[in-house]
Amino acid sequence: MKRYLTIISLTFIFLSCKQEQTNREITNIDLEVIKMDSISIRAIQVIDENTLFFAGSNGKTGKTVDGGKTWDIQTIVYQDSIKPSFRSIAKNKDAYFTLSIANPALLYKISDSNKIVYTENHEKVFYDSMKFFSNGLDGIAVGDPVDDCPSIIMTNDGGDTWKKLSCEGLPKFEEGEAFFAASNTNIEIINNTVWIASGGAKSRIIKSTDRGNTWKIIETPIIQGNGPQGIYSIDFYDENNGFIIGGDYSKANDNCKNKAITRDGGETWTIVSDNENPNYKSCVQYIPNGKGKEIFAVGKTGISYSNDTGNTWKKLSDEGFYSIQFVNERFAWLSGHEKIAKMTIQ
Asked: Which of 129, 149, 147, 148 is nearest to 139 (CA)?
């Protein structure tokens, strides 16, 4: 009897280990690139395989509801002359919102009338990304410091009104520390927790576990020290497991200290794949249902994939993109300079 129990136990362990170690080996992707003339698109909001909203340069915002066959694109002009450059987009249950970079900061609720719900005038103003919590009422946008703390604005009424948080309740930033408006992905939210990634003089994580009421700042080992260095994108698979990526935009082929992983909710970070590809990337995303092991990263240096939590990577395409968002484990939308693409995993 003991012999049979031992055999059963060993068989169970073997099968469990085999199942645990079985990860997809993605070798091919299909890219359908859609030309978007005269629009640089860093911010996308994906709904499903047919529906996508975007915000881009030259005051352009748009959407498709038929998988990119047709597009509803509009040009927003402020005070009859300013075409805002949008690099942030967020959607709740009722509407979607776009936020411009540079002075003045302009946050629009997109509709037939394109209502401005927040403005800010300051020579240093520069907003980088925006996102809503799952309830659709609470939202957050983050920008570079105008004083000695990050610029954070929040809404609690679904985006109709926004208020800037006081520096008194925020972590202090180092001179030269800021954010990157590269892909609208330096904010991540799960339940009540929000993480924001910085770069430049310091590469750090600003974290709140109570929807932005209190904050703490966490050091990371990501490359830092000057303007183009730092964390460009952050994603979490669940409340514990997360990934940050970036590098040095001015030295895009460098791959030193540009990728790190956390298993404790962002309290500590460990460099992975150091001095190995991928190099500079502007966006990282976990694949849905990938057990926290399958990760895609995109940037001007191409598309890369890992199936072992970021320890090793495979380059799947040299095509450059700014951002990627998954619909499911086999389909994603991407955006870049004068293009949007649909990606199908083979």
From this structure: 129
> Which residues are paired to 328 by β-bridges?
331
Where does 25-345 sit in CATH, by number? Answer: 2.130.10.10
Positive or negative, the CA dihedral 169, 175, 181, 187 is: negative
Sign of CA dihedral 225, 230, 236, 237: negative
pLDDT averaged per 10 residues, the chain (length 346): 43 44 84 98 98 98 98 96 97 94 97 92 98 97 98 97 97 98 98 98 98 98 97 98 98 98 98 98 98 98 98 98 98 98 96
R_g of the chain, CA atoms, integer Å? 21
* Beta-carbon contacts of residue 237 (< 8 Å; ≥ 6 apart): 243, 286, 290, 292
Mind spelling out the 3-state secondary structure of the chain? Answer: CHHHHHHHHHHHHHHHHHHHHCCCCCCCEEEEEEEEEEEEEEEEEECCCCCEEEEECCCEEEEECCCCCCCEEEECCECCCECCCEEEEEECCCCEEEEECCCCEEEEEECCCCEEEEEECCCCCCEEEEEECCCCCCEEEEECCCCCCCEEEEECCCCCCCEECCHHHCCCCCCCEECCCCCCCCEEEECCEEEEECEECCCEEEEECCCCCCCEEEECCCCCCCCCEEEEEEEECCCCCEEEEEEEHHHCCCCCCCEEEECCCCCCCEECCCCCCCCCCCEEEECCCCCCCCEEEEECCEEEEECCCCCCCEEEECCCCCEEEEEECCEEEEEEEEEEEEEEEC
**Domains of the chain by residue range:** 25-345
Task: Give the CA angle between residues 287, 288, 291 to the nearest 5°.
Answer: 85
Q: What is the pLDDT of residue 22?
A: 58
